[in-house]
Amino acid sequence: MGKLSEFKVEWTSVLTESVKRLNPLYLLKTSPIMFIVELGAFFELPLVLYPSPYLGTWFYVGVFAILLITVWFSTLSESFSEHEAKARVDFLKRFEKEIVAHKLVGDKVVDVKSSELRIGDYVVVEQNEYIPQDGFVVEGEAFVDESMLTGESEPAFKGKGDRVISGTRVVTGKIVVEVAAEPGKSYLDKMIALISGAKRARMRSEVMLSMLLLGLSLIFLVVVASLYFVLGAFGNYPDPSLMISLLVALMPTTIGGLLPAIGISGVLRLASHNVIAKSGKAVEAAGDVDVVIFDKTGTITEGIRSAVEYIPLNNYSERDVAIAAYLSSVGDSTHEAKSIIELAEDKGYVPAKVLVEEAMVASRINYTPSKRYGGIVFAWRGGKRMFGEPEGQPLSRIEKEILAMRSLGEEVRIVKGAPDAILRLLGIDKDPRIEDIVKTIGSHGDTPLLVAFNDVLVGFVVLRDRLKKGIREKIHELKLMGIKTVMITGDNPYTAASIAKEAGIEDFYAQAKPEDKLLLVEREEKQGHVVAVMGDGTNDAPALARADVGVAMHTGTRPAKEAANMIDLNSNPARIVDIIKLGRSILTTRGALTTFSIMNDIAKYFTILPFIISTVVPQASFLNFLNLYNTVTAVLATMIFNAIIIPLLIPLAVRGAGFKVSTFKKLLVRNLIVYGITGAIIPFVAIKLIDTAVAWSIYGVVHW
């Protein structure tokens, strides 16, 4: 999957939507701070129509316009953020493809869309094709990969009468399926209904910041109202426009207007990692994550079992086991058989060429769920044969034995399979030695295959579901950030324990059902944790929907991708670390900008207040230490700065304040100090310069 290309944002729609969001009812619901600012603008309107001769019409017009522009900057950022997120989701949907079904119509096969299938239709599904609709096998046999739905890494055998589920893939074989579900009523659709019942709670940091901003706004509202009546008690009520300007200047409008921009930054920066975020809030929530829940199959592991080791028995060598397993796997197209051959080749244990040639024409013993073993029976070409030593390396013990029987024309059978099935085939009731080895292999979470040559046990092949590249290192990074890692899977406890230990995951839950995953997320959230879930299967969908951060693999099922609030187009579970790093960077940025905004408010307090108090107490004019020209220029300069600082800080909000795994707290403190000091100094300098410009433009005076 390549990098996400540029996507087009419809600016006409963005601007239209931003104007619509100036609706007071919408602002009251989504941004109480901006609602108060807009309310101030409406209170300013009568003063525009009936201005005070002391301040003049243009002063009221200017304050009214600046207040509305301040609110509009906020709604514009929000509208742009949501439209950009929508553009990304629309881009993602272009990857969705409807399954083409091979429908049987009489003696012909007709390709139709899966949505056109009806109950009673028959469809043919061949190797590496996806089952288009729920149904039952009426003909043929196949191994079907259901890991996307069940979490089990081993393909399930499907024969006549077995149920199959839409979206699962035929690994080997060919089957004819009778459709048993109408469109919209399949297993997937039922899972989607389950997803719709899972809702996300608000993030803890979002609630805390909202409470802080609301608290500050109420405090400043009380302060301004009290000041108005106190000054009135002295017989001189200040102009209402001045009090409105003071209130707006004091309220944390800067951070209120920048919150959407911070969300934009998360979506943009995630896109550079090929991760789709459906909303900026999802990215911000990643910064609060302290528990990450991984699905094992396809997320932590490759989702396919591979041979990793040979264990010899009965004085055979490792090479003997590898050669026997190799020969039994010739002509077998399953991944497990291919991995057995690849491991043998990697170790240099390749059988003699003549034996490989004989294996290619040998009779196959196909694996079935009832037998639980498979292999080959050599049918020697031409009967008895004499044999000379092949060229190359010396023959192994088992090669010599096989070739000796070949020269006599005696039957040779090599099989591999479940240990109990092989023992039963050989007529062995119990073997404590074999049981101990099976238990040891199982305790490591691996799967044992027992290999037999005629009636003799040769050894074991150990199968393991391998970790995805880089996942172990990423999980270590999560630990450095103080994040708890949990793995949940439908596999058995032994396999789960082994994979968890190998990956460095702290806790795991085995043999889990879809509802168990959802319950785990809910339990962690009730304990006060912010939870991230990684997954790719339909069984992950409810948990992905409920989690604060749900990241689905693009190679996963459609329900999983619809449930998640993020989608990794490269299907790399290690990406969760980058997502959390980005989220924490956003939290650091938001904290820094909140401090900057609050210090801004305090600084602006000293630019307007002197002119309000001096109307009653002339001696208070010494508070005008910036030597602003007059009331009109001071108020307009402050309000202009209050409005323009929002778009000026958007680049910083988008770029972020940075984050390092090992120095999160130190970096946060540093940013608070830096942005706190600059937040106090910049308003004084900027407002003085704007005051000088306003004084020159209105009165033609250059005043310093």
UniProtKB/TrEMBL annotation:
Reactions performed catalytically: K(+)(out) + ATP + H2O = K(+)(in) + ADP + phosphate + H(+)
Active site: 295 (4-aspartylphosphate intermediate)
Annotated binding of Mg(2+), by residue: 536, 540
Superkingdom of the source species: Archaea
Regions crossing the membrane: 55-76, 209-231, 243-268, 605-626, 632-652, 672-699
EC annotation from Swiss-Prot or TrEMBL: 7.2.2.6
The UniProt record lists the keyword Magnesium: yes
A Pfam family it matches: Hydrolase
Residue ranges constituting the P-type ATPase A domain according to the UniProt record: 101-195
Cellular location(s): Cell membrane; Membrane
Oligomeric and partner information: The system is composed of three essential subunits: KdpA, KdpB and KdpC.
Family classification: Belongs to the cation transport ATPase (P-type) (TC 3.A.3) family. Type IA subfamily.
Protein name: Potassium-transporting ATPase ATP-binding subunit
The encoding gene: kdpB
